Amino acid sequence: MSTVVALHAHPDDEALWCGGALAMLAAAGHRVVIAVATDGHQGDGADPEAGVRLAELDASAAALGAARVVYLGYADSGHGPLFFPDPADRQRFARADLDEAAGRLADLLREEKASVLLSYDARGGYGHRDHVRVHEVGARAADLAGGVRVLEATLPRETVQRLVRVGRLGAVFRPSAPPGQAAAAEPAPPMFTPRREIAYRVDVRRYTRQKRASLAAHASQLAGPRAPARLRRYATRLPVPLFALLGGREYFNDPSATPAASFLDVFTDAV
């Protein structure tokens, strides 16, 4: 069995980007470690909300069968342009020095003897600054650690573009604007990955109960009137078969020169 480290930007990203795959890997006997770059809160570390989101991450990881959760110590950079100042106690992830942040992750990869790192596509999905930084830091950390294969979580661009055109569903992928500025009608393309370039389309329907529980563990992100919160709240209330229709497929790019025959083969070959 292999060890996989999944790097995410914020608590709840692990559920949204690859919760089913993480549950699948854990069920298959692989050691799953979730590393989160930020605590998901834009205030300082003394604010109780920061601790709440990390506690929710622990509950989510338990639902997925992850063996360990690691917080890299950065602050959430927020959506859109980087207009938030750094908190007094730590730095925004998007402002972090690339080698310094990658060094923290590389140390974890070496400590865990990880063979695979899950990261994000080069666009950070829909362009969130912290998500783009996950891609950059993940790629650099794998180089520093050596012998670590990278897979990049993504979505089919064509599917996302259709969702963006369907009114409020597009708000999930539409970053907020800084105070005093109007939000864009939709995120600037390109987003995610063209379907033809995606290496692995992973059927995780058997693990959607765990994925739904993982998402539901992030209760702070289910509250409120904004469209993303409402959609997540509705999703966690769906019966498992209906939730599987929405979240039963996950997608990964493989930047290696020799893609494996299937997603699970990557982890078998890496041992």
TrEMBL record:
Record bears the keyword tRNA processing: no
Any single Pfam family the record assigns to this protein: PIG-L
Gene Ontology annotations of biological process type: glycoside metabolic process
Gene3D superfamilies to which the protein is assigned, alphabetical: LmbE-like
MF annotations from Gene Ontology: hydrolase activity, acting on carbon-nitrogen (but not peptide) bonds, in linear amides
InterPro entries on file: GlcNAc_PI_deacetylase-related, LmbE-like_dom_sf
Keywords (A to Z) from UniProt: Zinc
PANTHER family per record: N-ACETYLGLUCOSAMINYL-PHOSPHATIDYLINOSITOL DE-N-ACETYLASE (PTHR12993:SF11), N-ACETYLGLUCOSAMINYL-PHOSPHATIDYLINOSITOL DE-N-ACETYLASE-RELATED (PTHR12993)
Protein name: PIG-L domain-containing protein
Source organism per UniProt: Pseudofrankia asymbiotica
